[in-house]
Backbone:
């Protein structure tokens, strides 16, 4: 297990640490509910260096990445990014990746502990192409600002900074990549910075946003209905089932998994749907338990958190289509009891 570049700050201020991927990060600095509500009222800051970072380069890099992923990349300009899915030949999800087009390469932001999987997948389909890759996860720290972002940062008006754009800025006396994210995290900004400069950048950002831990971030994610790796994003599910259709271009040519993904869309063969779940009380049930509709198994609970807004537990689940409409009464077993819940439209907020 590796340490964050700002591990000394976490040890001094965090209440408890949790391992995400291979990195120890804070569960919270204050009460998780207070951190969640802080994101509703102003900017919050989180260390997400558990995400992987890699670069793919060579004269054929763009063409190969286009053929391996679900979204259109041929018209991606320098300074733009795209959310892309690496899918298996069976149309299941390997990972959902943010790809940043730079002059000399593509910078890939992967899910926790998925960088090696993505790079091995690229290697598998690299034959005579001039394509090389490098794992930079240990080279960079990645901090994210969510909630109501500050109006200005490092002399840049964030209100005028379009989603899926990035640029190099000077912040805290160091160079960083400022990236306006969209789609696979609560909307906000990533700052990607060399680990040697991480403490200075983090210290600068603390003047603009309150730090939060993983618990509050995960609650924000569930409220937004965003799937996460090893929960909703896995080789058990296809992109249709977990709400990733915005990251599929059905007009592009062949890519790995395209035939299956297109057939599911054309013939309306998707069997499961991602839904929101609202429980009757504040107790958070155990994940990966089956969801039941009377005596019939209806799906599986994939994420669950306490909602400071609703003052009860909420979650995400993959359910059969017959139970995917809002208002369906379901239940989940927990500790010898049965906990009722009802399906709701996503997002919760």
Residues:
């Amino acid at each position: 297990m590796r340490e964050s570049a700002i591990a000394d700050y976490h040890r001094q201020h965090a209440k408890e640490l949790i391992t995400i991927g291979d990195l120890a990060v804070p569960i919270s600095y204050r009460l998780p509910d207070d951190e969640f509500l802080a994101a509703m009222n102003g900017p919050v800051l989180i260390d997400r260096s558990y995400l992987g970072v890699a670069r793919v380069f060579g004269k054929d890099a763009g063409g190969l990445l286009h053929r391996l992923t679900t979204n259109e990349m041929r018209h991606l300009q320098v300074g733009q990014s795209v959310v892309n899915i690496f899918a298996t030949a069976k149309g299941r999800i390997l990972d959902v990746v943010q790809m940043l087009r730079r002059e000399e390469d593509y910078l890939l932001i992967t899910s926790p502990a998925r960088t090696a999987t993505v790079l091995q997948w690229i290697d598998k389909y690299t034959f005579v192409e001039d394509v090389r890759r490098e794992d930079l996860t240990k080279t960079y720290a990645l901090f994210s600002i969510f909630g109501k972002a500050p109006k200005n940062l490092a002399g840049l008006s964030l209100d005028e900074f379009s989603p899926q754009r990035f640029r190099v800025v000077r912040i805290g006396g160091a160079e960083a990549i400022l990236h306006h994210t969209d789609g696979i995290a609560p909307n906000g900004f990533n700052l990607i910075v060399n680990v040697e400069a991480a403490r200075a950048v983090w210290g600068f950002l603390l003047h603009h946003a309150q730090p939060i831990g993983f618990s509050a971030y995960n609650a924000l994610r569930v409220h937004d209905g965003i799937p996460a790796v090893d929960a909703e994003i896995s080789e058990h599910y296809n992109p249709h089932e977990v709400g990733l259709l915005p990251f599929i271009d059905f007009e592009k040519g062949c890519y790995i998994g395209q035939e299956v993904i297109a057939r599911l869309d054309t013939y309306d063969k998707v069997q499961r749907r991602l839904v929101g779940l609202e429980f009757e009380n504040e107790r958070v049930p155990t994940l990966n338990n089956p969801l039941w509709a009377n005596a019939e198994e209806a799906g599986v609970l994939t994420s669950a958190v306490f909602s400071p807004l609703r003052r009860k537990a909420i979650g995400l689940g993959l359910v059969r289509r017959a139970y995917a409409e809002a208002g369906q009464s379901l239940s989940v077993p927990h500790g010898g009891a049965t906990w009722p819940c009802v399906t709701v439209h996503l997002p919760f907020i």
In short: Residues 271-344 form a domain with the Elongation Factor Tu (Ef-tu); domain 3 fold (CATH 2.40.30.110). The chain has a mean pLDDT of 93. Residues 214-224 form the longest helix (11 residues). The two ends are 35 Å apart (CA to CA).
